[in-house]
Amino acid sequence: MRFELPHDPIILLGIINMNLRDFYPSMALLCEDLELDLESIDRRLKDAGFFYDVATNQYHPI
């Protein structure tokens, strides 16, 4: 299943964090299942001021 991501970084953050919280134990599994590019998402969220924390499995403000 191909999932289209929103362009707004805050909406993207909400969708990614919700999916991580509710459905996926890791960012790698989320990206694999939804056929998303992990580096692209990570770069977009990093540019918006967020980082992925493996321990909490969420993106947080830098």
Summarize the structure.
The chain contains three helices and two strands; from the N terminus they run H-H-H-E-E. By secondary structure, it is of the alpha+beta class.
Detailed description of the structure:
By secondary structure, the protein is α+β, with helices and mostly antiparallel strands. It has one domain. The chain has helices at 9-22, 27-34, 38-47, and strands spanning 50-53, 58-61. A two-stranded antiparallel ribbon has the order 1-2. It is globular. The N and C termini lie far apart (31 Å).
Question: Which terms summarize this structure?
Answer:
alpha+beta, two-stranded antiparallel ribbon
Question: Which class do the helix and strand fractions yield?
Answer: alpha+beta
- Fraction of residues in helices? 40-55%
The main pleated sheet reads as: 2 strands, antiparallel
Question: How many strand segments?
Answer: 2
Tally of individual domains: 1
Mean pLDDT: 95
Outline type: globular
What is the topology?
Blueprint: H1 9-22, H2 27-34, H3 38-47, E1 50-53, E2 58-61
